[in-house]
Design goal:
It is globular, with a radius of gyration of 23 Å. The strands form 4 sheets. The protein has a 7-stranded parallel β-sheet with strand order 10-9-11-8-7-12-13, with helices on both faces. It has a 4-stranded parallel β-sheet with strand order 5-4-3-6, with helices on both faces. The protein folds into 2 domains: 240 residues, Aldehyde Dehydrogenase, Chain A, domain 1 (3-Layer(aba) Sandwich), CATH 3.40.605.10; 143 residues, Aldehyde Dehydrogenase, Chain A, domain 2, CATH 3.40.309.10. The longest helix is centred in the first third of the chain and has 24 residues. It is an alpha/beta fold and 421 residues long. It is built from 14 helices and 16 strands.
Length: 421
């Protein structure tokens, strides 16, 4: 009981400090936020050896816990990945500052001028698993959008996240911004997550970034509003009029570039006409790349495949595994995706404009692509510098959550002694 009281007091203190910092950030000059982020990027690169050493401790801890290869891949930092973190911080720094942007401006017959302008949400709580780069991404995006952020990283990435967080703090210090603007929960205790989900006085929105278990817990227990990021059950549909060489490149990249990210393809749908014309070329490519292909129906007779179970469809493998099925045209693909998808990202491979339009119009996933790999489902690849995740809900933020999506708005109304009759 004493420990719980101590944790609650710690979290309350973090919340109060974040709220005070948010009040100052709401009117901080764009130049100061820019300077904080560029300074943080410099620190990340100059401290890369210390970050790598911290990550090595996390990796050793992860192996002791027998994390899956996909989870270890998410956790691991290399010099190239640290360089990407620094590059992401600089990219966010160089973006247009969204705070104060006029979204709409109009005059009323009464003489009032009304403007709708972007304003920070306030305090963002980010709960994430494994990936230490989220520490930098979340800190940068929240700062850019004028929000304070409370970060609760996974226990697996605690050392790495702490090392990266120290760089963000140094950036804030150099720019003269409150260090409470970016806080990292200083404990691995899972009870801290439950505390955050109840902090309605201090946190305006929670962003969970992780697996189905984490997101389900947050949605079930949160009293604070949530930007949902559900499973990435991403589909690729090879239409009868797909270019076979384009299809081969895209399918292989969508599955194998990085299997443990939410934009990895988990299901390949093949039009019967494509299969009749080009055979099992897509499946053979996947098998040659070492992917376990779980095939349904006649596709299961292809050497090297294994028969798919019913629960292999609508499943996020996050591994070198893919479910494959034949469908009858684009409508068959649409029906399958509607039933099994998570409204994350779907891709169609076709040279037929009308077919692509039908796919785009009749599916309601957050991201729909044509002749492009689902691995592009990423805020950085959308020009946002970084992202807090791919929101699959339909309210407020949807798709990649960047700085602009972390703002709300307010109305500024100006009159001249104007009264209402």
């Amino acid at each position: 009981m004493k420990d719980m009281e101590t944790l609650a007091a710690t979290m309350d203190g973090i919340g109060r400090a974040a709220r005070a910092a948010a009040a100052e950030l709401a009117f901080a000059a764009p130049e100061r936020k820019h300077d904080a982020l560029t300074a943080a990027a410099d620190e990340v690169w100059s401290r890369r050896q210390a970050i790598l050493e911290a990550n090595a401790r996390d990796m050793a801890h992860g192996r002791e816990k027998r994390l899956s290869p996909a989870m270890l891949d998410r956790l691991e930092l290399t010099e190239a990945r640290i360089e990407a973190i620094a590059r992401g911080l600089r990219a966010v720094a160089e973006q247009r500052d969204p705070v104060g942007e006029v979204i709409a401006d109009w005059d009323m017959p009464t003489g009032l001028n009304i403007r709708r302008v972007r304003t920070p949400i306030g305090v963002i709580g980010v709960i994430y698993e494994s990936r230490p780069n989220v520490t930098a991404d979340a800190g940068a995006l929240c700062l850019k959008s004028g929000n304070a952020v409370i970060l609760r990283g996974g226990s697996e990435s605690f050392q790495s996240s702490t090392a990266i967080h120290a760089c963000l703090l140094e950036g804030l210090r150099r720019a003269g911004l409150p260090q409470a603007a970016i806080q990292l929960v200083p404990t691995r205790d899972r009870a801290a997550v439950s505390e955050m989900l109840r902090m309605v006085r201090h946190i305006d929105v929670i962003v969970p970034r992780g697996g189905k278990g984490l997101v389900g817990l947050v949605q079930a227990e949160a009293r604070v509003p949530v930007f949902a990021h559900l499973e990435g059950i991403c589909h690729v549909y090879a239409d009868g009029e797909a270019d076979p060489e384009k299809a081969r490149r895209v399918v292989l990249n969508a599955k194998t570039r990085r299997t443990g990210i939410c934009g990895a393809a988990e299901c390949l749908l093949i039009d019967r006409r494509f299969h009749a014309r080009h055979g099992a070329v897509l499946i053979k490519d996947l098998l040659a790349a070492g992917v376990e292909v779980r095939a349904e129906g006649e596709l299961a007779t292809i050497p090297g495949t294994v028969p798919a179970r019913p629960d292999d469809f609508g499943r996020e493998f996050l591994d070198s595994i893919i479910a494959v099925k034949l469908v009858d045209g684009v409508d068959g693909a649409i029906a399958h995706i509607r039933h099994y998808g998570s409204q994350h990202t779907e891709a169609i491979l076709t040279e037929n404009d009308a077919t692509a339009d039908r796919f785009f119009q009749r599916l309601d996933s957050a991201i729909l692509m044509r002749n492009a790999s689902t691995q592009f489902a990423d805020g950085g690849e959308f020009g946002m510098g970084a992202e807090l995740g791919i929101a699959t809900g339909k309210l407020h933020a949807r798709g990649p959550v960047g700085a602009e999506q972390l703002t709300s708005f307010k109305y500024l109304v100006v009159g001249d002694g104007t009264i209402r009759s």
